[in-house]
């Protein structure tokens, strides 16, 4: 029953991430910040599709391939979201080196996810699932990269909240709270392969695209309703 609910939550994440990414772009495609959020949503969609297909896999070989796919998506989630935060806060021009380095690392980790066993070593039963990713020897490096950019995004949001005022302050606060919540909940998806712990926080990850999209269009939505 628990695994079925978890699978449903991942399917919901596929729908919300891709759907709201497309919605954001169609609603207002001109601002770079919106296009970055659309790309971040698509990266989340790629990760969630890989995770969903891994859970539905009938063999270890298929589950391993989908594990590689989901890690390719994850490699771009953190840098795209970090870039989105910088553009949202009008600070991207001051941190070009961090952004460029992040994209280079994302490409490297995507390559490593599909080539060799450094990131994905296979797939096997874990915490009640028929198949879940087996972490390779380079997995700690992948986690260090992923969480470094997530924590940087949180740091810049917190700094931006202190420095902003009015409607912008409300938007930043809303997005910051969402990121803190999803970092705690979504981060649990790394636990089965690293600590043998059930990813209970994954039940709520599908809310992330919804809340961030609302945060981007906060004032428009508030006025409309």
Your description of this structure?
The protein is mainly α and 225 residues long. The chain has one domain: Rhodopsin 7-helix transmembrane proteins (Rhopdopsin 7-helix transmembrane proteins), CATH 1.20.1070. Helix content is 74%, strand content 6%. The chain has 9 helices and 2 strands. The chain has a two-stranded antiparallel ribbon. A hairpin with a 2-residue loop joins β1 and β2 (129-135). The chain is globular and about 50 Å long.
In short:
This protein has helices at residues 2-27, 32-56, 60-88, 96-114, 139-163, 166-186, 191-195, 207-216, 218-224, and strands at 120-126, 129-135.
Number of E-state strands:
2
What's the N-to-C terminus distance?
Answer: 37 Å
Total count of domains: 1
Under the CATH scheme, the architecture is Up-down Bundle
Strand content: 5-15%
Physical arrangement of strands within the biggest beta sheet:
1-2
What's the CATH H-level superfamily name?
Rhodopsin 7-helix transmembrane proteins
Low-confidence segments, given as residue ranges, are: 220-225
Largest sheet: 2 strands, antiparallel
* Rg over C-alpha atoms, rounded to the nearest angstrom: 17 Å
Structural class, judged by helices and strands? mainly alpha
Order of helices and strands: HHHHEEHHHHH
> And the CATH topology?
Rhopdopsin 7-helix transmembrane proteins
Q: How much is the average pLDDT?
A: 85
Helical fraction equals over 70%
Backbone shape: globular
Number of helical runs? 9
Q: Regarding CATH, which class?
A: Mainly Alpha
